[in-house]
């Protein structure tokens, strides 16, 4: 029997079985990787180490990490700014083929850096990344800094100085849009007078437009000075600029903010009357929602419900935000079962509840001591694809403490701190620290101290009063070790002035 012919040199070699490919890492997996990294300190070594860990965990087909994924990771880590920035710098150390870098990602990093304790140093290094990587500044880049300096850092002078130096320091044109964003940051930090003075001083360079006047009116309304807001409205008309619907809604909200209910109602009626001939005066969904909420907060629920019922008849169907406002005021001033009925009616009519809807109803149920139902609503929220945010969790933690469910509250916090839920924010820590003073036991003081250490590690500084209260509690209960740790922290951060009372 002849031997079989040799295989043809052109015959294909047998293909080895394909190894299963790992699915690409999702944002939550990358966030978990960052949270579990040994160090949260931003150094070149820790950034390189995290970069190597990401490369080792990410399958080759998933690289480069797309910009939307990187942005989602930064948002998931938002309440742990040091680790979020560590991820950002690890991203920069990935090979160019393994990452995408967009201006929006750098904007997010800039926002995070501006919240921390040395904002000018951190933000300068991040701003330098735009020209270094050939990225253009976005319309959000400098407004982020204006707002962070003015609101978070309480340094409106830094915001003004940055704006005035933009052309020289960054080659950015100082146009009216950017000027208006500076004014907006000033009024949000309750510096309406400074904003008005700046407009007068720079009026020739930046002639005010409707947006400028609206920002100034909003600033005085935030200060509950509606007479000055009305003066802005008059100046606007005298300068030949027609007020917009936003202008009227700002004034309307201002009346409610300052408790001038009758003025608010009369102004709303005038809007309706003039709206027949002038579309810019006709109340829209924002106007109705403002009136409904203002009346409800003042305890006039029947009148608020009447306004709600009138909306659709006036050709202005309610929005999800309108339902949220109605549910909120009913929970505050009425019966939570009525709020549940409004929620059910909203869903039946095809509206999709958002995180605010669920949170205000969960708060109402908790306030009515129906925490079991609140937890069930939380589970329903998750099952319907609406992720609870930090405010939702803070509500449940606060009321669990009030009901004496300390372990349940601390367990929920533990899940948050590990990233199993959304990360805790400064309010979360303040809620827990305050709750630890109910029993004033030594172990409770130790928990409060660990919360202080943890929040500082995550980029927050406690209020001086809160810090000294915890320190005094530790010393009175004899916890020398944690007392020394807090004293060292006090020496490090000048804002935490020593006020020890024995």
UniProtKB/TrEMBL annotation:
<feature type="repeat" description="PPR">
    <location>
        <begin position="209"/>
        <end position="243"/>
    </location>
</feature>
<feature type="repeat" description="PPR">
    <location>
        <begin position="319"/>
        <end position="353"/>
    </location>
</feature>
<feature type="repeat" description="PPR">
    <location>
        <begin position="354"/>
        <end position="388"/>
    </location>
</feature>
<dbReference type="InterPro" id="IPR002885">
    <property type="entry name" value="PPR_rpt"/>
</dbReference>
<protein>
    <recommendedName>
        <fullName>Pentatricopeptide repeat-containing protein</fullName>
    </recommendedName>
</protein>
<dbReference type="InterPro" id="IPR011990">
    <property type="entry name" value="TPR-like_helical_dom_sf"/>
</dbReference>
<dbReference type="Pfam" id="PF13041">
    <property type="entry name" value="PPR_2"/>
</dbReference>
<dbReference type="InterPro" id="IPR051114">
    <property type="entry name" value="Mito_RNA_Proc_CCM1"/>
</dbReference>
<keyword id="KW-0809">Transit peptide</keyword>
<feature type="repeat" description="PPR">
    <location>
        <begin position="244"/>
        <end position="278"/>
    </location>
</feature>
<feature type="repeat" description="PPR">
    <location>
        <begin position="284"/>
        <end position="318"/>
    </location>
</feature>
<feature type="repeat" description="PPR">
    <location>
        <begin position="389"/>
        <end position="419"/>
    </location>
</feature>
<dbReference type="Pfam" id="PF12854">
    <property type="entry name" value="PPR_1"/>
</dbReference>
<keyword id="KW-0677">Repeat</keyword>
<feature type="region of interest" description="Disordered">
    <location>
        <begin position="1"/>
        <end position="23"/>
    </location>
</feature>
